[in-house]
Structure formats: structure tokens, C-alpha cells
Amino acid sequence: MKILVPVKRVVDYNVKVRVKTDGTGVETAGVKMSMNPFDEIAVEEAVRLKEKGIATEIVAVSLGVAQCAETIRTALAMGADRGILVETDAELQPLAVAKLLAAIAKTEQPGLIILGKQAIDDDMSATGQMLAALLGWPQGTFASKVAIEGETITVTREVDGGLETVALALPAVVTTDLRLNEPRYASLPNIMKARKKPIVTMSPAELGVDPAPRLTVVSVAEPPKRKAGAKVASVAELVAKLRNEAKVI
Amino acid sequence: MIYSEQHRELMRSVTKFCEAEINPHVDEWEKAGIFPAHELFKKMGDQGFLGIHKPEKFGGLGLDYSYEIAFCEALGASRSGSVTMAIGVQTDMATPALARHGSDALREEFLTPSITGEFVACLGVSEVGAGSDVASIKTRARKDGGDYVIDGGKMWTTNGIQADWMCLLANTGDGPVHRNKTLICVPMKTKGVEIARKLDKLGMRASDTAQIFFDGVRVPQRYRVGEEGMGFIYQMQQFQEERLWAAAGGLVKMERAIADTIDYTRNRIAFGQSILDNQVVHYKLAELQTKVELLRSLVYRAVEEYINGADITKLASMAKLTVGRLQREVADSCLQYYGGMGFMNETEITRFFRDGRLTSIGGGADEIMLAIICKLMGTLPGKPPAGSNH
């Protein structure tokens, strides 16, 4: 079985994001970028499935600027076999990403597409669901455990109030939650081997997709700065403040 | 720019390794005064991190030295100077001479397990009476049948408590002090090796630094690294890598100290504004960052020339001198802007302040670096200092 793993290049999770002065987005110039951590979990899961002999090939896909090739290399160093880069300077929103991935899925015919439940930059949590809908495939989102047996994948999902287990017929789309696994760090021999693994570059036009945004970002603002707290003399005063000023009880 | 995409990928992987396998344990290891070297090195060996520049025949990756330096630079993500130093001893201080000059059998016995991480290595050069003045060591290895019999002692030995073997520098003859020394691999379990005490230090407190005595320690002569009498020369070559390592290892550490200080001072309000908004603070931090970048350029250039086979004694000495001094300046300046919290052990900057102090002393003190540079500039009066004969 072939597995397709979409990987997104995002601002590194350690970076404290800063809003651009013109309020159009967050600053990415000169900022450290790396693979979306949820996608890293997806790569790890795919590699584990390959190590178990269930998957035969892992294809990592990234969409965006030329530097996304680096993100693909990270996936290749972790154990993916080859990469596809859909290169565009255009802003990509979840629907466009889902359409591009669907077009790739039609030619690649994977048995499973596994990707992060959301990207840590815009937290849309939409791509996986849209992709499943466009392909007409079943979806298992927010997976904390997956098991494949024959033509069925069992996905344990983290939902409010507990765990839900669903069984899906393959091919399917699975999105990963934080507790699915702990991604490995690429070993140096594998990093060097990844250099020789192929990455194919294509454009949205070649896939017959117009990636133009359908949503307009009106403004981006930093969260309000935390204000200094106040001391209260008694529990009674605290309750009064919570009731009358904060209006939370 | 000496770094390719593979270098950056390696650095990403090393950074993640530090964050997952080292940083969560640093406080505990500092308190214990030791860290589990075998456990950690095995994990690093599994990642291929301990044999980057070592021959493939013995389990290394055979990559050029720029990869080693990328690894070292990325290790700056470790929040423990002690652990970084211990790794440096393993990869770039105790093993380069063995990798370069050791016989195949010797490399199989000591280098291969040091690359896989099964063995922890230490370097035995400094003695109570000979620190930077390497030529004055007193430890002696005399021949007896097919063996060497070693008597003497070593001081300030990093990894000394846990090490499986030592790359030992000992006198094997009575000739001129630069021609009478030999490097020998000494298994630390050998009879007569006494680990006298774990030293109590200002910084690098998670590192097990030992004083060690040798009393009639018998090892076969085939444990000799390369030729007899060449030990001093080998060690001086080995020092070039140690010095580049020290310089590269300081870069990210200093940058993190600066970044942490920016963070802290931005959020700390005094006299109605953030500390960072005082020009003296943000200007000073900008200046420090500038100096770090200057050092980085020097290191990269030295590495490039080293890979091309040039003698980099001068550049490596300059880089080592600079990192020692700059680390002290960065640590002291940053700590100052932390105010009262800069004096509290719970603030990480204090550890950087303590750990970083060693860099101007270990691996040849600042003054030795200056003497080497002066010698190469032709301005050193009188006889050349020990440590520069090369």
C-alpha cells in the first residue's frame, strides 16, 4: 500500500510569532521555519506502517514556495521514499490545498492519506476533511491510534468526553492528533540517504487547479497584553468581583 | 556559506535531540553532579552523531569536518554546558588522533565502540603540574616486555568517572620534551588506574570531572596510537579540532542567552517601561549579537580552510580566544540585565555564566592562544611557549 503524507512548512514551534506592522499577517521573513508538528506525527505513523510491512511506499507532498523542498527533505530523512513539491508563491488556503492534494491522489492512487489535524500557523483544521469530501473517501480525524487490517483502518479519535473508535474502508483520509506517536529525529545516515531520494516539482496549473484564495484576511492582530492583577482582601471581595466585575459567576 | 541542506537537516535533528533527550533532565543532572553518559551516548550513536567525521570502516560516516562543526553548533541547543562538553570530548578531543593515526586493530577495539556510543572516552593530558603547559607532563610509560607500565596521574579529566578508556599522553623517553611523548589507549578498568576523586567545580556541574592516578598500570604496547614519540605532535593536531569545536559550540549558546535576555527584559517593567526599551540594553544586545556573527564567520572560514588541508593553527587559536572572551562578555552582560533574578540559581543565565567561564581556560588558556598567535605573527620574544610547537 502506498501512503501519501502532505507536509506543511510553517513557522517553527519555538519561534514567538510577531504580527507584521501592517497587520496583514505574521512575520515570516528571516524566521525559522520547519515542518508542521502534526504533519511530523503523520510522517512518523507512515514510517511505522512501512516498518511493520503494511505500507510499501511513502510519498511526501508539500505545497508552496520553493523552500518547501526542505520540509520534504525532512520527511525523506525520517523515512519517506520520494517527494512531490507543488511550487507556487500564491497564498494557499485549505480548499486550494485539498484540491491540489486530491488531484495528486488521483494520479498516485494511495491507499491512505495521513496528515496533521491542523497546521500550527493558522489552525484551520480543514484540509483533511475537505480532501476526504473531494475524493469521496471516508475520514478519520484527530487520530490518537490507528490500526490497519486488510482493507480496513481502525481509527481511535479524541473527541470531547472520551475516545471514539471508527472503522473505515480504505482508501481513507486520516488526520493525526498529538498523542498518536512521538516522531523520531532523523539519523545522520538517513539524512545523507535522503539527499539521493527524488523530489518531483510541479505547478498548480499542471494539476489543473486554480489555487486563488476564496477567503480574505481582514486583519491580524496580536492578542491583548496581559494586564496586571489585583489583590483582594477577602474571599467575599473576590466573589463580589467575580460576580459584578468579571461577571463569570 | 559552508552549510548545505543536509547540514541544516542534521542541525534540526540535533536540536530536536537536545530538546527531547537532554534539556528535560538538565536540572536533575546538575544536582547529581553527573549525567548518564552511556545511556545518552548510545542514543547519540544510534543517530550516527558520534562518528560524523570518522572513517566509515570503523562505523563512522566519513563526512567532511563541516558536518562535525554543524553538529557542534547545533548542540548549542543543549541547555547543559556539561553535556555538550562531554560529547565534545568523545567526538573531537579524545578520538581524532586515534582515528587518524591508530592501527586498524586499535581503532576496532576503541574507536568503533566510541562511535556506537557503547564506550565513553576521556582525554588524559592535563596534570596537576601541567595544564596549558602540556610539554611538562610527568606521567611516564616505560616499556616492559611487550607492555607499557604507566605511572603518574591526570587532572581535570572530563568524563573521568564514567569513561571506559582514556586517550593518555605520557612520556615514553628522555629526549626533547616535544619528541618524547606518546598517546596510548588505556582501558579505565585496568589494574592500577585509580579514580581518586570527582572534582567540585564552579560550573559544568553535571560533568564528571576527575583526578586520576596510575600506579604500575600495564597495557600492551599495541595500544599505542601511531608512532612512539609523536604524542605531543598528535595532541597539538588534535587540539586544533578541540579549539574549533569550542568556538563553534559557543555560537548558539550565546545567541540563546541573548534571546532569553531579550525575552526577559522585554517583559520586565521598571521605571514605567520595559528594561529592553532602555537604549543601553537593546544596543548592547545588538552589539553582542554582531560579535557572535563575526565569530561565526571566522569559524566557518577556519573550517573551510581546514577541509581544504590548510594549517589553521592561527585561525583556530583566534577563534578559541574569541569564544572564551565573548562568552564571558555575553554571560556577564546578559546576567546584569536580569537584575536580581540574574543572581538566582533558578535563572538559567547563571548556569551559562558559570559554565562558560571554562572556555577561556580549557583546551589551552586565552594566554596560550595569544602566545600562539604572537608566535605566528613573529612578535613573541624569547623561547616559544609549550603548546605552540607546531
Give the mean pLDDT of chain B.
94
Mean pLDDT of chain A: 94
Number of strands of chain B: 10
Q: What's the story with the biggest beta sheet of chain B? A: 4 strands, mixed
Q: What distance lies between the first and last C-alpha atoms of chain A, to the nearest angstrom? A: 55 Å
Q: What's the total count of β strands of chain A?
A: 11
- Rounded to the nearest angstrom, the distance between the terminal CA atoms of chain B is 29 Å
Strand order of the largest sheet of chain B: 1-4-5-8
Give the full name of the CATH homologous superfamily of the largest domain in chain B: Butyryl-CoA Dehydrogenase, subunit A, domain 3
How many independent structural domains of chain B?
3
Large-scale geometry of chain A = globular
Question: Level of helix content of chain B?
Answer: 40-55%
Number of domains of chain A: 1
Write down the Rg of chain A: 21 Å
CATH architecture of the largest domain in chain B: Up-down Bundle
Based on helices, strands and strand pairing, what is the structural class of chain A?
alpha/beta
Strand content of chain A: 25-35%
Which segments of chain A are poorly predicted (pLDDT under 50) over 5 or more consecutive residues? none
Annotation keywords:
heterodimer; A: 249 residues; alpha/beta; Rossmann fold; 9-stranded mixed beta sheet; two-stranded antiparallel ribbon; 11 strands; 27% strand; globular; B: 390 residues; alpha+beta; Butyryl-Coa Dehydrogenase, subunit A, domain 1; Butyryl-CoA Dehydrogenase, subunit A, domain 2; Butyryl-CoA Dehydrogenase, subunit A, domain 3; 3 domains; 4-stranded antiparallel beta sheet; 12 helices; 10 strands; 15% strand
Describe this structure as you would to a colleague:
The complex is a heterodimer of chains A (249) and B (390). With 249 residues, chain A is α/β, with parallel strands linked by helices. Chain A has helices at 37-51, 68-78, 94-108, 127-135, 188-194, 235-244, and strands spanning 2-6, 9-11, 33-35, 57-64, 82-87, 112-116, 139-149, 152-159, 162-169, 172-176, 199-202. Chain A has a single domain (2-244), classed as Rossmann fold (3-Layer(aba) Sandwich), CATH 3.40.50. Chain A is built from six helices and eleven strands. In chain A, the strands form two sheets. A nine-stranded mixed beta sheet of chain A has the order 9-8-7-10-6-1-4-5-11, with helices on both faces. In chain A, helix 2 (68-78) packs across helix 5 and helix 3 (94-108) packs across helix 4 (127-135). Chain A is globular and about 65 Å long. The mean pLDDT of chain A is 94. By secondary structure, chain B is α+β, with helices and mostly antiparallel strands. Chain B has three domains: 5-120, Butyryl-Coa Dehydrogenase, subunit A, domain 1; 122-229, Butyryl-CoA Dehydrogenase, subunit A, domain 2 (Beta Barrel), CATH 2.40.110; 233-377, Butyryl-CoA Dehydrogenase, subunit A, domain 3. Chain B has helices spanning 5-22, 26-32, 37-46, 65-74, 81-93, 96-101, 104-116, 231-267, 279-307, 313-337, 348-356, 366-377; strands spanning 121-124, 140-144, 147-158, 165-171, 181-187, 193-198, 209-220, 224-225, 269-270, 273-274. In chain B, strand 2 (140-144) and strand 3 (147-158) form a beta hairpin. The longest helix of chain B has 37 residues, at 231-267. Classes of the chains: A alpha/beta (249), B alpha+beta (390). The interface between A and B is medium-sized, with 15 and 20 residues.
